[in-house]
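Feature request disguised as a bug report, sorry. It would help if multi-protein outputs had a clear separator. Right now it looks like this:
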Amino acid sequence: MLLLAGCTLPQVSAEERLFLNLSLDFLGEYRLPSDTSFEATPVRGLSAIAYDRQGDRFYALSDDRSEFAPARFYTLKLNLSNDAGEVAIAGVEVERVTTLLKEDGEPFAQGTIDPEGLALSPRQTVFVSSEGIASEGIPPFIDEFDLVTGAWQQRLPIPDRYIPKTVDEQPQGVQNNLGFEALTLNPGGFSTTWLEPFRLFAATESALEQDRQPSEEAAQPVYSRFLHYLIGDELPVLISEHLYPNDVPPPLTVNGLTELVVLDQGGHFLSLEHSFGIAGAGARIFEIATGGATDTSGIPELNGLSGIEPIRKRLLLDLADLNIPLDNLEGMTLGPQLPDGTQSLLLVSDDNFSPDQFTQFLLFRLNGARRGA
């Protein structure tokens, strides 16, 4: 008792208990030449990226709506240099293109898909999310495809509240071009076998139509919907859903959630929010914690409700602090171990097939990460 009374115990804040002790070191940038093509397809519009550490390859999804070539993803090899201990991206090689195929075995027709999210699974498949095209009544989806052939495998159940439609003259469902943008899977790096169930997480870029705040409350956070699926031998099940609070952007700026990365099985993730406005493109990386967040899977509309606890988040890095030109950063993944044994993090930008934009890879060291499962 006396010994304990004489000791000074370390003070740990609630935030320190909630979040991991993470930090990021910027290691460098690489720009893919704008005229890069592979097998007659333009390697552009890269909106999502995932890493297979067993094969040491990346998979990058193009958000082409089958306008320039059929909807597809690429297999990439990232070459790192290590000169005098300084790690950098020496180059990016395109090794393969895989066309996504519908249930009937045919490629997606032009204007029927808006691929935005990609997650690599431990059973040699990829999950791809499409925002849908709300303005044309095309619903969003999260589908599974064969990693090698691109053949369709299955579709995850999407609650009716996400389907774009009009009910009693009020729009509902995902907003146009603001649907399922973020997609990630646990375990990362695949420490389990395909026989074991795994969890997949998806999120909308912004609020559902029925969740949008009234115009007079425009300064309030915009809540994306964050979905948690369990996938195994049985039919996939939506376990829970939470609210993700997007940052309130400055005037004349739009902001949205574009990517998620699983850090562990304790509900810790990285999130990427991008913005665009009169000051140009911006992006911020957050650490988020889902523990304690209210399950909103039984709430079809948020307006008028109170007492809902959203996902907690803290800023890890504002990329404006890098003092480099930024493009439309949309993809993020944990990458290979760096030569010093630390964990890498890779971001990629979607150039929107615009001659005024560029495909940008950004490499970071993620300090303090507890990888995987």
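(second protein starts here, but nothing in the output says so)
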Amino acid sequence: MECTIKGNRMNAAEALNSRLSIPGQLVFREGTDGLVFADIDNAHAVASLCLQGGHLTSWRPKDQDRPVVWLSEAARFARGKSIRGGVPVCWPWFGPHATEAGWPAHGYARTVDWEVTDTRALDGGETEIALALVENAQTRAQWPHASRLEILVTVGRSLKLILITTNLGDHDFVIGEALHTYFQVGDIADVRVTGLEGCEYLDKVEGFARRREVGAIAFAGETDRVYVDTEAECVIEDARLGRRIRVAKSGSRSTVVWTPWTEKAEKMGDFGPGEAGPGGTSRGGWRQMLCVESANALDNAVTVLAGATHRMTVEYRVE
């Protein structure tokens, strides 16, 4: 986006700042490869959001020494490429496309431009920013349905995200979706997740075998599970950092829990070196993250009726 004022060309960040910045709370800046970011710094927290993908890249409440949302040190910021870390938006399908192997995994929403539609300073000191996905020839070819996708992000002591799908057409359609959040942890071996006890899950590491969770989830190897038919709140208990991250959601019937572990992380190549382990050896950046994703996936794909709106909401809070 470019515009001209008094004969001078403004870049996209400057144009946004002229209309939508919030003094003392929110400013837009241009980063690598022309990508534009919204940087938020209010009384409660600091956060950044990349307009490509509507992708929140970081969030740290000011009472925390370490970020809560993890971003890889090796994350690549490039046009049309997904960012390793933060909160990628998976939409309008989850995982590989059902029939088109060449189309992007988890849909196109995380790699195309979004536009800022509103910003607000709330009475409690929180900052709100709203964005909408910008359609192009690629998106229309891969999703030939009249629709609108928006995300509303509220940054404060908690982080709240609402993913909003509106069916603008005259026929129903089915979506898969997820807020693919990467959380900062001290070390994955010292983390467990509670709240999903008794839930059924599909184990992607074991060929989508269907199992039932017995107790708290602990990690000793690659884990990739889609917990289905659950709206349960869950908690990431982090012994190393001495904190609990509470994940509360609505409009979501699936929860995905994922850590790649050593071999898969090395193949993916953008997890970064991580912190030094014993003797100065690298422990791998993947050891400091865990994905707990609020989703509607596999068994829980959502039918959005003609003219209707579906909302998936998640809120993160640190204890």
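Even a blank line would do. Unrelated, but nice: The chain has three helices and 25 strands.
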